Amino acid sequence: MTGRADRTNDATGDPGGTGGPSAPGGQGRTGRARWKATFARWQVTFDRWKAVASRYALLPLRLFLGVTFVYAALDKLTDSAFFAAEGSGSIGETMRGVRDSSAIPALVDLALKNPAGFGYAIAFGELAVGIGTLLGLYARVAALGGVLISLSLWLTVSWQVSPYYLGNDLAYLMAWLPLLLAGASELSADRFLADRRRRIR
């Protein structure tokens, strides 16, 4: 004869009556646990990449501005016509052309007193700013130089551009501001020198 317990075991297929892994409810709980574990791993990976992206967020901007300013400087320094007081493509002709439409005509008049000197100042300033930015050496000082160069060109050469967003000097001015505020904290000479000073202490 079979008792009630035997009949119950036969009907459920679970001798222990515990609702083990073969039970539908157990499979659901196991699936949810696996999904949560997978999601947690994805979350950890995402947080790690987000932290890396935050650390290097300004690096593309540094590279772009550094390369652009070095290129602009070399383009001027290798063009003998640029430093002339008169003639097509000269700094003198450019300054006279924007004199009446600039925001600060007195600044243009100052440049016209010595067009070649002003041209060399801009070219070597761009070169120093670009190299400093690429190396991350005195990065905030370099960014300040970039701000001043872009500001002076915006107030003179591209002030008359309308609408304003077509003038590239204003865009460069805005692009330098994050580097002026944050400096070059990663992959930079400034970071290397700061770490070295801490080790010496």
Describe this protein's structure.
The protein is mainly α and 201 residues long. The protein is 71% helix and 0% strand. It contains 9 helices and no strands. Helix 3 (59-77) runs antiparallel to helix 6 (115-135) and helix 4 runs antiparallel to helix 5. It starts with a helix and ends with a helix. Mean pLDDT is 86; it is low at 1-22.
Helix content: over 70%
Question: What pattern of helices and strands is seen along the backbone?
Answer: HHHHHHHHH
Structural class per helix/strand content? mainly alpha
Strand coverage percent: under 5%
Shape type: elongated
Give structural attributes.
9 helices
Secondary-structure topology with pairs:
Elements: H1 4-12, H2 24-55, H3 59-77, H4 91-98, H5 105-113, H6 115-135, H7 139-156, H8 168-182, H9 189-200
